## 1
Amino acid sequence: WSSDVCSSDLVARAASSFDLAEVATLLRRADPLLLALALAASWSTVPLRGLRWRMILAAAGLEISPRASTEILALSFWVNCVLPAKAGDVYRGWLLKQNGAPSFGNGVGTVIAERLVDLAIVALLGATSTFVAFGGTLPPTALALAAIALGVAVATTLLLLVARGFAAALIYALPIPDAIKSGFTNTADSLRAGSGGLVIRRALPLTLAIWIGEAARLGAVAAALGLFVVNPGAGEIGIASTIFVALVAAVLTVVPVTPAGIGIVETGVVGILVALFGFTPESAIALALLDRLVGVGSLIVFGGVLFAFSPYRRGVGSLR
């Protein structure tokens, strides 16, 4: 990819002038079989996330079944898709308590541990994938993204260490009523237990499998649009670049302004595809929209059905 591809003018042009009819044409031509493969790859990550969270819960002393961990996690993800500010993460802890867990704080602590560890690993993988995707020769925009990803990884790791140590000690020392303090201490205890080195090492294969699945979804969507090749040129992506874009999109979802980062993720992905990989604005928009439709759109639909019928939503589900 040539350096002129990385100019901000291209990104501005993608945002201000594109052919909507061409975007629609690209979307209509998408291969339905490859889209079905993308959907399968996307949903394969849900039970993997459930198993990983179950492992973290077990480390914190909360034993629940694979069905309970997966279904409660899927419900919380659905809430994150319809409400801003990562409300689903708090809802996950509330569902645990409603269905028999001893403490709301215990559940929230494991969710915080899962989120912080996952973000640190994703940011580190994102920085690494930048060098792989560009063969070690990074244009300025890619170098800036790699630096940001490394910064996020370091900041998240420091935040986790503070939460495990100083923050927990501060909670214990605060002159607040025991009834209130117990909730915070339960959260701190579960966070510390669920983010220990042994737990992270055991959960790492699941984390890698999850992000391989996310990248496979994006790759299958790109292939459905005819934009994925093994040896990509301008306007195409390959294996390494697909992993890079998927991880950057994952980091962007952390910004809790909109449900599931809607608007933020699409803008970021289109900008990256145009500026770094030479996509036309139309092909970049088509890929970003279709990938989010497969990932987030399907979760809104199927998660809504699950929300309507799940016993865990009504507080009558079995954790065992």
## 2
Amino acid sequence: MFDVIRQRWLQVPPNMRGILWLLMGSLAFSINDLLVKSLGNMMSPFQMAFFRYGVGLLIMAPVFLKMGAAGLKTSRPGIHGARLVIACIAQVGVYTSVVYLPLADATALAFSRILFTTIVAVIVLREVVSGGRWTATLAGFVGVIIMVRPGGDIDPIAIVAIGAACTFAVANVMIRKMSTTEPPNRILFYYQVGGIAVFLPPTILLWQSPPDLVSWLMALAIGVLTSVGMIGFIRGFAVGEASVIGPTEYIRLIFAASFGLFIFGEVPDVWTIAGAVIIVACTSFIARMEAQKRTRK
């Protein structure tokens, strides 16, 4: 039975399989954000991050055990540590923005990491960026400004969300520098183990016990859903063309707006919608240009 299903799945065109994997990953990340927001008044972002890394490590343990000590050994502990700290700071920022901002706002601002990646790549990797990509990046930041609305009262949590996107961009660019010697699973191993080490002390100090079994299950599900989301994206981009399947990720914004509206009663205003549309259009254009550049190499 399993072999029959697998054969039929492999008969699906690669790009369609990639889109379906990304849909699964996007839905998992969106439900994860929904749980984070729901648990925000019961536990701190540090505690939720600890569950995220702890459960994720348990799920990935068979892969890491198969690699063994030889496969996990690294000669670059410094860059692993630096990326870990930067990514953990970003993780707390993301959870904070999800808890205190409308889900649509938090999700749209999170997409600005692609805009920041352009700037960070130029500074850190000395990448040469085309005029079209610079134009799209600047236009994308206009969308961010529209969402933040600097002419009125600026929500400090929106600044946290933008800072988290920038910090994640730095962490992602560091992966490019590491990838010359470090395979993806080794990077993931140090990230998962290091995340537990970073978030264990604040989790102990700020411990808030979930009030019931459902809340405990929701906290554990954060780690499961994050892992499922990562698997969906890794599998999707492994089988499909990035320029074709990449825009599928933006369905997260629809999921976020729907969850926010029907579960939390959050109605996006015209400025949020306008800013989000600009950000999605510009980041989609940048992602497509990057995919085409990799294809030409």
